[in-house]
Design goal:
This is Btb and math domain containing. This protein has 301 residues and is mostly helical. The protein has 16 helices and 5 strands. The protein is elongated, with a radius of gyration of 22 Å.
């Protein structure tokens, strides 16, 4: 049996290095990860090679597939030949831009040990054997010092095969990875005014927004969409904040930043209260960091 202890020995140090390289300051990334883990609002089913059903959010997949329904359909069809684990890792990448190293190693070890003597052609051996051989030959310091290169190897082993068959190459994977890939796609989503399906009325003015973004980022709206059967696609804002501030909040929900060219000191002061009123899922320090940054910049003027 092959010695896979190298994974167990390196896992904690590798993950610690990743945390240092990608500090947890991206609340959008946290929200998307939580949205994937929940069963709320999922409206599409993906079947694995053993018939198991994995649910997802169609609109998120379309956002990541550049709104190409044909690509999405092809992805779902190819998943029918893949294991549940491969599909889950691929969805994790599509939702967050990252691969969960802990889950990858745990699932691989479980599957590999089960099939080592019984099935020499198992899904995992087919997909990962070459990657395992390469990584086992690497020195530990090389792995720790070249996390990005190793991350690419993991991604190839996990999702490159699936996405290549879908019609994408490694360049596409690199463009989609990380928080930069996520924010780039959702910035485009923000600009799609024709697909916005919900209206927030503030001071008798309308702010168009996608229900999806409110479901992902605001506990207030998530609760409303889950509990209210009313099919109305609009709501009046009762936060008593200005139209401009609400606009800035919506911009922030899509882009994880504030539009510096349009913000005022008054907006910042209102925004501090507004993020609590809308119950934003900010488990990270990003929101506070931005507010503190802009407040200090205005105080100097």
């Amino acid at each position: 049996m092959r010695d896979l202890n190298i994974f167990e020995l390196k896992r904690k140090r590798i993950n610690q290095e990743i945390i240092e390289l990608f500090p947890k300051i991206y609340s959008f990334n946290d929200d998307l990860n939580n949205f994937l883990k929940s069963n709320e609002f999922k409206d599409i089913e993906i079947k694995s090679n053993d018939g198991e059903i994995i649910k997802a959010h169609k609109q998120i997949l379309l956002i990541r597939f550049n709104n190409n329904q044909t690509i999405l359909t092809r992805f779902i069809n190819i998943c029918r030949r893949k294991s549940k684990e491969i599909i889950q890792f691929s969805l994790n990448f599509l939702y967050t831009g990252f691969i969960d190293f802990d889950k990858f190693i745990e699932k691989f070890n479980q599957k590999f040990n089960q099939n080592e003597t019984n099935d020499s052609n198992s899904n995992y051996q087919f997909l990962f054997s070459n990657q395992i051989e390469k990584i086992q030959k690497e020195e530990q310091e090389l792995i720790l010092n070249q996390i990005e290169n190793q991350n690419e190897k993991f991604e190839k082993g996990l999702i490159y095969d699936l996405f290549e068959q879908t019609g994408f190459d490694l360049k596409w994977i690199k463009e989609k990875e990380g928080i930069k890939g996520i924010l780039k796609d959702f910035e485009k989503f923000y600009q799609q005014n024709e697909t916005k399906d919900f209206t927030i009325i503030v001071e008798e003015k309308e702010i168009k927004v996608h229900k999806l973004i409110l479901q992902i980022r605001s506990e207030l709206f998530k609760g409303m969409f889950l509990s209210v059967n009313d099919l109305s696609n609009q709501v009046h804002d009762y936060s008593e904040k200005s139209f401009e501030t609400i606009q800035q909040l919506i911009y922030f929900l899509y882009n994880d930043k504030i539009d510096e060219t349009k913000i005022t000191k008054e907006n910042i002061e209102e925004f501090t209260d507004l993020k609590d009123f809308y119950q934003l899922n900010q488990k990270s320090i990003l929101g506070s960091y931005l507010l503190d940054f802009y407040s200090k910049s205005f105080s100097k003027n």
